[in-house]
Amino acid sequence: MQEIAAPYFGPDACTAIDELVDEHAGAGVFVLVDENTKAFCHPLLVARHSSLRNARLIEIPEGEKAKNFHTAVAVWEQLSEKGALRDSLLVCLGGGVLCDLGGFTASAYRRGMPFIMVPTSLMAMVDAAIGGKNGINLAGLKNQIGSFTQPDSICIVSDFLETLPSRHILSGYAEMIKHALIDGKSFESLKKISPVEIATSLSLIRQSALIKLDIVKQDPLEKGYRKVLNLGHTIGHAFETWSAMHSPDPVLHGEAIAAGLICEAFISVKHCGLPVSVLDDVVQLVMTHFQKTTFYTPAGNELIEIMLHDKKVKQEGRINFTLLSNPGSPLIDQYPGEALIRESLHYYVNL
Ligand SMILES: NC(=O)c1ccc[n+]([C@@H]2O[C@H](COP(=O)([O-])OP(=O)(O)OC[C@H]3O[C@@H](n4cnc5c(N)ncnc54)[C@H](O)[C@@H]3O)[C@@H](O)[C@H]2O)c1
Predict the structure, then answer these.
(1) Of 42, 178, 253, 271, which one is the catalytic site residue?
(2) pLDDT for residue 315
(3) Residue 150 in contact with ligand 1 by CB distance below 6 A
(4) Rounded to two decimals, what is the model's pTM?
(5) Residue-wise pLDDT tens digits, 171-223
(6) Residue closest by Cα to atom 41 of ligand 1
(7) Does the active-site annotation cover 240?
(8) Ligand 1 centre and the CA of 338: distance in Å?
(9) Nearest to residue 32, comparing CAs of 123, 122, 95, 124?
(10) In the annotation, is 253 catalytic?
């Protein structure tokens, strides 16, 4: 079993990057970027770490649509053409898409090369870069191929967020709401802080990232307890997949999760006795910051179909949820049934 990688923050993260780059300099260091992180983050990285000036760049297209097998093959081909060895280091400099895909390609290249996560989006800092889950999408379905492989380090430097578009700040904020609901202790304080304040506060980012780390440590391979992190994701992933199939401007992961949190809080009230006041808080928080994503009535059946194809569905074909009985009290392996799922979609659409 691999040791769970704990994130370094701020100056400690910079020191960790320098040490790992020095360690692997002989075998070669590669920096994986997308078109945006190449333009906005790579100059900052190189300015801070002169040892990375000679590292070779591998560029992938930005965004969820690039999180697929073709991009993974292109990364493997470039690593091979540029002479990457088994001991070479891959620095994943990007958002959640790049961290997921970079971790996956590194975990398989020559049966596993060292890699570090240098997350540049809020989503990646508080969530995607932590926990060792990596992967790519298949046939429009999220994260169907991947592995559990821990990075050699996770280095979180919040300055990268200065160039992250506000829509993507909000997307990461949705996962912070989820972490606060699971943890319970930080939910009251999160309610009072705007997403912009969060993006400039390394201590809030650290708090959220450490909630995820603590959960992952208790269940690294998602055999049980780690499923608490699926709160908002059963319906959220279905929204995301449906939107990618139908919309010219698909919702972002976090936007879909924000909508999923409302639906699943609604189900939690009916199925697990979550106080209505908490549902009201979630609705208030999400509706204040996120544009409403409307899912037309015919999508109800399609959404249920998508959920039935989701990896969280149990063998009996029932749709599995993580729900809440209170902030701080998540419940895994809940089966509220299709009627209540439909009711929650109806509730969301009519808000
Ligand atoms: N592995 C996990 O545990 C886990 C957890 C949560 C989310 N995820 C995955 O993360 C992905 C979403 O991640 P995301 O929201 O970061 O999206 P993303 O990786 O697509 O990044 C968002 C956009 O911002 C750009 N960008 C990133 N950093 C920037 C910066 N500092 N300045 C300017 N532009 C920047 C990117 O190029 C992209 O266009 C999804 O695929 C989701 O499944 C994985």
Answers:
(1) 253
(2) 61
(3) no
(4) 0.95
(5) 999 999 999 999 999 888 888 888 888 877 888 999 999 999 999 999 999 89
(6) 97
(7) no
(8) 31
(9) 95
(10) yes
Distance 62 CA to ligand 1 centre (A): 9
Q: How far is CA 230 from CA 11, 154, 333, 334, in A?
A: 32, 22, 10, 11
pLDDT at 140: 75
Judge whether 42 counts as a catalytic residue: no
Ligand 1 probe mutation, 143, 168, 177, 310, most atoms within 8 A of CB: 168
Known catalytic residue at 53: no
Give the model confidence (pLDDT) of 218-240 as tens digits.
Answer: 999 989 999 999 999 999 989 98
Question: How much is the mean pLDDT over the chain?
Answer: 93
Distance 158 CA to ligand 1 centre (A): 14
Which residue ranges form the domains of the chain, and what is each CATH number? 7-163 (3.40.50.1970), 166-349 (1.20.1090.10)
Mutate to test the pocket of ligand 1, among 121, 142, 162, 221 (most ligand atoms within 8 A of CB): 121
Of 230, 240, 264, 271, the active-site residue reads 230
Q: Which pLDDT score, from 0 to 100, does residue 10 have? A: 94
